[in-house]
Structures are given as C-alpha cells and as structure tokens.
Design goal:
Belongs to the carbohydrate esterase 15 (CE15) family. By secondary structure, the chain is an alpha/beta fold. It has a single domain, classed as Rossmann fold (3-Layer(aba) Sandwich), CATH 3.40.50.1820. Helix content is 32%, strand content 15%. It is built from 13 helices and nine strands. It has a nine-stranded mixed sheet with strand order 1-2-3-5-4-6-7-8-9, with helices on both faces. The chain is globular and about 65 Å long. It binds 2-acetamido-2-deoxy-beta-D-glucopyranose. The site of 2-acetamido-2-deoxy-beta-D-glucopyranose (NAG) has 4 residues, from strand 6.
C-alpha cells in the first residue's frame, strides 16, 4: 500500500498537480465486500458432513459442496480451518460474517424475527406491573411483566435489570443493586404447537419458532421498561432463563444488541448445548429428539436436518460467537441429568471463546461450571460476580474460564481454532 501511495504521489508530482487532492491519493483501506449469502440457502445435502464444529470464520458461500471441486478432503479442510476465503479481520467479521450468521440462524433454526420498525409498542406501569401492548399489521398482542426493584433505585440513580422467564434467584441480585423483571412466557407464546399468546396474536401463520417468540417477549418487555420505569437503566440489561427458557434467553441475547449480558442456564440443545458431541453427559439431547419432542421451539426448516445434524453449517458456538463483543455467561451443572453440560463446557464454550479472543473481547465470555443439577438455583449466584463485573465493573477473583471437573477444552472438536486468521 505504501508503494502504491509513493507511486501515486510521484505520478501526481510528475503531472504537475502537486498534492492538491490529498484525499484521492492517500492510502485507503480497501472497501470490504461481503460474499453474498447463497440464495436459495443450501440444503443439508449441499453442505459437507462436519463431525467437528464448523469453522465460524468461513462464509456460507464457501462452505457449500460446490467449492469441493475434485477435492476428496473438502469437508476435512473446512473443519480444520483450511477453507478458502475465511474472514481475515474483525472488521470483516462485524461487517459480513456476524450479520450472515444472524441471517442463516433465522433461516435454518429460529425463523425470521419480525421487523420491529413496523411495530407500535405501548406500555403502562402501575405498582409492580408493566402492561405491554404491541400492534403490527392491525393486530395487537398484550402481556405483562412483573417488577422487583432493589432498594435505592430512583430515576436519578437508575439500576441495571435482569429480565427472566420462568423465575430466578432474585435475592442476591436485588441485594447487588440489580432489578429483576419477569414475564409469563406462556402468555407471550405457549410452549406447545397451539400458537397462542401475544406473539401469535400478532404473527400467527409465520414459520417462527417459539424460542424466537420468547426472545421477542424479552425485547418488548425492555421497550416497556424503557418507556415507563425510570428507575431502570435500559442500557444495562441481562436476559436469563433455564433449560428451554435458557434457549429462549440465548435467542433474546442474539437478536437484540441492547442486551448487555446473556445468561443461558442449563440450556442444552438449541441453547449452548452442541448438536455435535451431544452425548458427553446428560440424557443425550439431540436435534432429533428435541425436534420430535418440542418441534415448535424452532422453525420447520430445522426439521429438514433431522438425521443430518452434522451437515448444519453452524453449532452452538456459532450462536455464541455472533453475540460478541457483548457479554455472555454460560451456566451448567455437573449433576445435570438432562443437558450436555460437559459438551457445553469443553466444546461449545471454548470454541466460542476462540472467536471472542480473536475479536479482543475474551473477557466478555465466561463459563460457570457448578455442582448441582438441572436448573439448580445456585447457578444464579454462581454467575453473579460475572454479571456485576459487566454492570458495575466490579472486580472478581472468580475465574470464569475454569472448566472445573471437566478440566480442559476438547481441542479436537474445533481444530480451526489453531489457525485463526491473523488480525492485522
Ligand atoms: C428508550 O426510548 C428512547 C425514546 O424512544 C429511545 O431513543 C432509546 O433508544 C430507548 N432505549 C432503549 C435501550 O431501548
């Protein structure tokens, strides 16, 4: 680049134009061009079988089998970080790859999040209740949220908030000066195929998963808090829930940049549990059994990957990585009989952290491996120091990169991480 500049200056000097137009001759960052997202999206048979976690740095266009040519090692190359046209810089990640991941996750799993710019949100606040009404396309859905403020919260000293579904351990959060707000997720979207609740009152007929509907509930609750509760600071916001509701909390963190810290608890598959390496602990929750047991959590497209989960061009670590550089703290209990705590801790978490590290945000992702079982309330106090660090900058000596009894990452699950693109 320097050579080009010198040449250009020489040329302009020779042409007698001196340096009259410095803007035109100064070295410029080459404009970043994003590879187009394949349209239509590739089906499972057009994607390579990847037994280890997909390379988050490889754009979808270069992941498809069309790129294999006569290579017999295409899938292996892709898995090991030798795919062509990987993202090279954080700028490229934020401009191209992160938005692409958000798109492909909606296409393959979540269904398309409704266009918020077409919504009108109204809210009223009385006592501990915030009533929320959302209108779009002439239809209205209503639900309410319940508020607990810590002592000392005031409009001149607004406090951060954790919004939860399904309840949480409130007391330590309130003592720490954090408001706790809950809403009845079933009144936003029933945990069934019934398509009832405020979300479906507005969006019935769309191929959207219930996890996305719950995410929308978190976001509209935040809108309502911002409009009617001046004691809450809407720029410091956590979202949480456990098990299926942890999957919903992860979606809430993914789809709204206003969420400061995402706190999925014992979340399992479609949360922070990987589709691959699903049997390391727990009852072996998989794409197949989650789709047959609660197919409504995701859109219908995900069903086309049943028995082909290893052709998915993403996994739990990709979802987590797309949240960067915003904070993410992941809870799992070693005694969890249901979800794959070990797979989350030694596979999904460290793979996502490789991306956070590369983006210079390594301290924004944490893993909390605790004792106890599925949705044990102690998980909330275990992660609290991380949340306090995010909200208040409070120092903590607790190491949120400690995998506890699971010890160390399974690096063979994400070989591409040893070949991360040089950020220069
Ligand atoms: C709160 O509402 C104001 C006014 O509509 C808006 O400008 C701001 O972005 C909102 N903040 C959040 C965090 O939603």
């Amino acid at each position: 680049m320097r050579t080009t500049t010198t040449t250009q200056i020489l040329i302009s000097a020779l042409a007698g134009t001196a340096a009259a137009t410095p803007l035109a001759t100064e070295p410029r960052q080459a404009a970043i061009e994003c590879p187009p997202i394949p349209s239509p999206y590739p089906t499972y048979s057009q994607l390579p079988l990847q037994k280890s976690l997909p390379d988050p740095f490889l754009p979808l266009k270069y992941t498809t089998n069309d790129n294999a040519g006569s290579s017999s090692t295409f899938a292996k190359d892709v898995m090991e970080g030798r795919g062509q046209h990987r993202v090279q810089t954080p700028e490229e990640w934020y401009k191209c790859r992160q938005p692409e991941i958000l798109q492909l996750l909606q296409e393959y799993q979540y269904g398309y999040y409704p266009d918020h710019s077409q919504e009108k949100v109204e809210a009223t606040h009385s006592g501990n209740t915030v009533n929320i009404a959302v209108t779009a396309g002439g239809k209205t859905g209503k639900f309410k949220a319940t508020l607990s403020l810590p002592s000392g919260a005031s409009s001149s000293k607004p406090v951060p908030v954790v919004i939860n579904i399904g309840g949480m351990q409130n007391a330590p959060y309130l003592s720490a000066g954090i408001a706790v707000v809950g809403f009845d997720y079933t009144s936003v979207a029933a945990d069934s195929n019934s398509k009832s609740g405020a979300f479906w009152d507005v969006y019935k007929g769309r191929d959207i998963g219930v996890l996305t509907a719950w995410a929308w509930g978190f976001h509209r609750t935040l809108d309502g808090l911002n409009m009617t509760v001046p004691e809450i600071d809407p720029t410091r916001v956590g979202v949480t829930g456990c098990s299926r509701l942890g999957k919903g909390a992860l979606a809430a963190g993914l789809f709204d940049k206003r969420i400061t810290v995402t706190m999925p608890m014992s979340s399992g598959v479609q949360g922070m549990g990987p589709y691959r390496y699903h049997g390391l602990s727990g009852q072996d929750e998989t794409l197949e059994n989650s789709k047959s047991g609660a197919g409504w959590w995701s859109n219908s497209k995900l069903g086309t990957f049943v028995n082909h989960a290893e052709n998915l061009p993403y996994d739990a670590h990709t979802i987590a990585a797309a949240i960067a550089p915003r904070a993410l703290i992941i809870d799992q209990g070693t005694g969890d009989q249901f979800t794959d705590s070990k797979g989350t801790a030694i596979v999904a978490y460290p793979a996502a952290k490789a991306v956070y590290d590369w983006l210079g945000a390594g301290d924004k992702i944490g893993m909390s491996v605790r004792g106890g079982g599925h949705c044990d309330n102690s998980g909330f106090s275990s992660i609290l120091p991380f949340v306090q660090k995010v909200f208040f900058g409070t120092a903590t000596t607790k190491n949120f990169n400690d995998l506890g009894t699971y010890k160390s990452p399974m690096t063979t699950a994400f070989p591409w991480a040893t070949a991360v693109p040089k950020a220069s």
